[in-house]
Amino acid sequence: MEKPVRLCRLADISDGGAKGIELDAGGDALDLIVLRRGCNVFAYVNRCPHKGTPLETFPDHFLDPSGELLICSTHGARFRVHDGACVAGPCEGAGLTAVGVFVSEGDVLLSCLPATQGREQSMNDPHRAACDQRVA
Ligand code: FES
């Protein structure tokens, strides 16, 4: 990926919330989930490892009532926000596919797509979860 792709403004995601974003990845639509925790961001492909369905039933409704776990609306699998690991449900031990994102000048930027998209994957992206003090 030559240049980071802007996904949204950090301020478009409430602190503690999540947002679904559809990305055109070289002609293929790619549904992403972007989560915000303060000035940190996490992103995953919106595809449950159990049956491959999107997680949400309603737009941007990805979290359980505690706000601590993503929940799959199809069969109830639950995933940790910070690493996408499934901690309960039919795909326990599996995980969501992480996508590299970082924050710069108030924008949430995509740094790399997962390897399954034919691109490099960088789970240790030094820009991941970067804090931008200029964000309001
Ligand atoms: S499709 Fe997500 S838990 Fe079954």
Structure description:
By secondary structure, the protein is mainly β. It has one domain: Rieske Iron-sulfur Protein (3-layer Sandwich). It is built from no helices and 9 strands. It has a 6-stranded antiparallel sheet, with no helix packed on it. The radius of gyration is 14 Å and the shape is globular. The chain starts with a strand and ends in a 24-residue tail after the last strand. The C terminus is likely disordered. Bound molecules: FE2/S2 (inorganic) cluster (FES). FE2/S2 (inorganic) cluster binds next to loops.
| Derived structural class | mainly beta
Widest sheet, order of strands: 1-9-8-4-3-2
Small molecules bound in the structure, each named once: FE2/S2 (inorganic) cluster
Provide the number of structural domains: 1
How helical, in percent, are the residues? under 10%
**What's the CATH first level?**
Mainly Beta
How many helical stretches?
Answer: 0
Largest pleated sheet:
6 strands, antiparallel
What is the correct CATH architecture?
Answer: 3-layer Sandwich
Count of β-strands: 9
Unreliable runs: 117-136
| CATH topology name | Rieske Iron-sulfur Protein
Which of globular, elongated, flat, extended, rod-shaped describes the shape?
globular
CATH level 4 superfamily: Rieske [2Fe-2S] iron-sulphur domain
Distance linking N and C termini: 29 Å
State which percent range the strand residues make up: 35-45%
Mean pLDDT: 85
Provide the gyration radius in Å.
14 Å
